[in-house]
Amino acid sequence: MTRPMTIDFVSDVSCPWCVIGLGSLEAAIDKARDVIDPTITFHPFELNPAMGPDGQNIGEHIAEKYGSTPEQSASNRARIRDSAAALGFTMNTGPDSRIYNTFDAHRLLHWAKSQGAQHALKMRLFRLYFTEGGNPSDHEQLVAAAVDIGLDGDDARDVLVSDRYAGDVRAEEQFWQQQGITAVPAVIIDQKYLIMGGQPAEAFERALRKIAAES
Description:
The mean pLDDT is about 95. This protein is of the alpha+beta class. It has helices at about 15-30, 60-65, 70-85, 105-115, 120-130, 140-150, 155-160, 165-180, 200-215, and strands at about 5-10, 35-45, 55, 100, 185-190, 195. The chain has a 4-stranded mixed beta sheet with strand order 2-1-5-6. The longest helix is centred in the middle third of the chain and has 17 residues, at about 70-85.
């Protein structure tokens, strides 16, 4: 007999480890469906809320934010690329990639939840940024992503040109920060158990089964 399980996934669409964490989590869920019946909800987190409209070269950004050398950045990208590939996701970021503001992407994801398409849009935005080298702050690219997964383009554009859901997104971001979330991905099970980072699928599966057994 399976038991219901809520999974809150706090992440940013420009976070590569969030792609890996989600892929690993979903692989673990597939293996643990004999004991759990999970529902995943995505929540916003901005890695770079002060990022300007033109974005920034990712190498410059990583150097400024973390003090990483170009060689360290390249090594980390290779590790991320290989980890993502093992989960069937293609990462095409390189030293000339850019990092962008993602607030409007989170507003669109909030709207997509009401349309029953949050997961599909989340994955489409991951591909837009990491695989296609797109700009997740550009309204036309966001609208096209929404249309690609079957959402209404005019409705998506109406959300983006307004300030709809801005208060909701900011409130959610503040809530998770108040819960102590300062990095992503953060996975919260049943509003009680926290798992941080892009863990391997085996680690997620062990955690899911353990939590199910404890309950």
